[in-house]
Specification:
This protein is mostly helical. Helices cover about 45% and strands about 10% of the residues. The chain has a three-stranded mixed β-sheet, with helices on one face.
Length: about 375
């Protein structure tokens, strides 16, 4: 139901930054750091580890003892106390009391070195250079993270997208696009349940079958989804069909998206249930299907719903299947769409779908062999 979907969306937005957004630990990098600590004559990290504290400023240092004794055990607040000419930062001595913005692999290498107990270093007396971000919001901390990692060393686009979306309070388009992709990956009624690589790669330790199931990359889908939430119309194929719902009944928009993909799954069941031999569950095809969803919505809005977007709630799997009739005739085999996953390939898949589904050309009174540009 739409109310349940709207509540699910609200929980996604509310809880999007719980637990932080650390990327996967790359075992090779961790092992290299551990080896560096064991074998190097000068095993010193000269660059700073950057951490963010949830800060509560105090002018009166006398209140700190009383405050620290009364807070909940799960509290992670740090306290910055100014006492005459001395500044003191009180950080709870507990796990995850600080958000690591940059340096988690160095910390992981130190931890593994200490656990193994091999090497001459005494980590009880090992100094680290640490930069504390004080008085910054988590939005600011996220900005610092992808400035560092986006300019100095390559980081997977999905990781940068995830962290920016989790902590931004200003980029509403990205926040919504990320939430919708997350819903596609996590909601029980989604045919893409558990199939999206939210960090751009499969976690270590999965079986071959589990890795095969993770076939779609979050970063690319978010970029395709972004224009759907923009305030201004696009000059391209994708229009801001969901923008109005960010101000109103967003459950209708989510339901339309999930209903659409369930209709697609039913029409392409032969490929959907055997994804190893097709591109149906690859990023390139899901991106093309998001474009088709956009075009379907625009046609329905203009020609069927009398420009009343709330009528999207009346669309069912059966009615969308009827509109997408012909999709079952599209060849989604790997032989048909071989090569790299590029914007050109997304366009090629989109054109192929439009050539087999007559709804669009018929609705717009175009010829049978009309192009995607004409539509």
């Amino acid at each position: 139901g739409e109310e349940e979907l709207a509540a699910y969306y609200d929980s996604m937005i509310k809880d999007r930054h719980k637990g932080g957004g650390q990327r996967f630990e790359e075992r090779e990098r961790v092992q290299k750091i551990k080896k560096f600590l064991q074998e190097n004559d000068l095993p010193v990290f000269t660059n700073s580890i950057i951490v963010h504290c949830d800060l509560y400023p105090y002018q009166d240092s006398g209140k700190i003892v009383e405050e620290m004794s009364s807070v909940n055990k799960e509290n992670r607040l740090s306290f910055f106390v100014k006492d005459n000419d001395r500044n003191t930062l009180y950080v709870p001595y507990k796990d995850k009391s600080m958000l690591v913005v940059d340096g988690q692999h160095r910390i992981a290498g130190l931890r593994e070195y200490k656990i193994e107990g091999k090497g001459p270093l005494n980590l009880d007396h090992y100094d680290l250079v640490v930069t504390f971000l004080l008085g910054y919001t988590r939005d600011d901390a996220a900005q610092i993270f992808f400035t560092i990692n986006g300019t100095q060393k390559p980081v997977n686009t999905s990781i940068i997208t995830k962290i920016e979306a989790m902590y931004t309070n200003t980029n509403k388009e990205l926040m919504n696009a990320y939430a919708f992709i997350k819903i596609l990956n996590e909601h029980k009624s989604s045919p893409l349940l558990g199939r999206i690589k939210m960090l751009g790669k499969a976690p270590e330790g999965l079986t071959f079958e589990e890795k095969q199931a993770l076939s779609v990359t979050q970063g690319l889908l978010v970029q395709i989804m972004l224009p759907l939430f923009r305030q201004k119309p696009s000059v391209g194929l994708v229009q801001p069909i969901f923008y109005c719902y960010t101000q109103g009944d967003i459950g209708v928009a989510i339901k339309f998206m999930l209903t659409y993909f369930n209709a697609v799954r039913q029409l392409t069941s032969e490929y959907w249930e055997n994804p190893q031999d097709s591109v149906i569950l690859k990023s390139v095809c899901i991106s093309a299907l998001l474009r088709i969803m956009n075009m379907l919505y625009v046609c329905c809005f203009s020609l069927i719903w009398n420009k009343a977007p709330e009528l999207a709630r009346d669309e069912t799997i059966a009615t969308i299947r009827e509109k997408l009739s012909g999709l079952e005739n599209v060849d989604f085999s790997k032989e048909k769409f071989s090569g790299a996953s590029s914007a050109a390939t997304v366009t090629k898949v989109t054109d192929e779908i439009l050539s087999k589904v007559p709804f669009f050309a018929q609705s717009l009174v175009l010829g049978e062999n009309c192009s995607a540009a004409e539509i």
